[in-house]
Design brief:
This protein has 4 helices and 5 strands, in the order E-H-H-E-E-E-H-E-H. It is α+β, with helices and mostly antiparallel strands. It has one domain: Gcn5-related N-acetyltransferase (GNAT) (Aminopeptidase, 3-Layer(aba) Sandwich), CATH 3.40.630.30. Helix 1 packs across helix 2. It is globular.
Length: 146
């Protein structure tokens, strides 16, 4: 059986288990399905968006983005996560997901998209550069558990 044409669509709560799998096996971030479902059910309309890539009824990739506002720069869109299951990588799904986010940004009069990518993810860096994204500066991210 040949795979059907990928469908890029807005995520729904029923996608939670598949997205959890993508988080674990595509990003390396294990998480609970209940958390993913809760987040999907509580997205801030007009402020954030999740698109999925679905093939044969299974979500094999996703992108999550939200509006980024700060006092010193115009509103931008911040990509919080982009991942495709390893078996489906290198088939254009990541590009289609990025295109969906870019279209959503344009529809919302947002002209800048930003994202963070771990220093060790050099293949991802090449992918982003191939789509016209450039790293504007080197930066360290600091976190504290409280």
């Amino acid at each position: 059986m040949t795979p059907s044409v990928p469908q890029i669509r807005t995520a729904v709560a029923d996608d939670a288990e598949d997205i959890r799998n993508v988080c674990e096996f595509g990003l390396g971030y294990p998480c609970e399905t209940t958390l993913v479902k809760h987040r999907l059910e509580n997205l801030q309309a007009g402020e954030e968006i999740v698109f999925v890539a679905e093939i044969n009824g299974t979500v094999v990739g996703f992108v999550h983005a939200d509006k980024y506002r700060c006092l010193y720069y115009e509103t931008a869109l911040n990509i919080l996560g982009l991942a495709v299951l390893p078996a489906w990588q290198k088939q254009g799904l990541g590009t289609q997901l990025i295109n969906a986010v870019e279209d959503w940004a344009k529809e919302n009069q947002i002209h800048v998209i930003r994202l963070n990518s771990g220093a060790s993810r050099t293949k991802a860096h090449g992918f982003y550069r191939s789509l016209g994204y450039d790293n504007e500066k080197e930066q360290l991210r600091f976190m504290k558990q409280i």
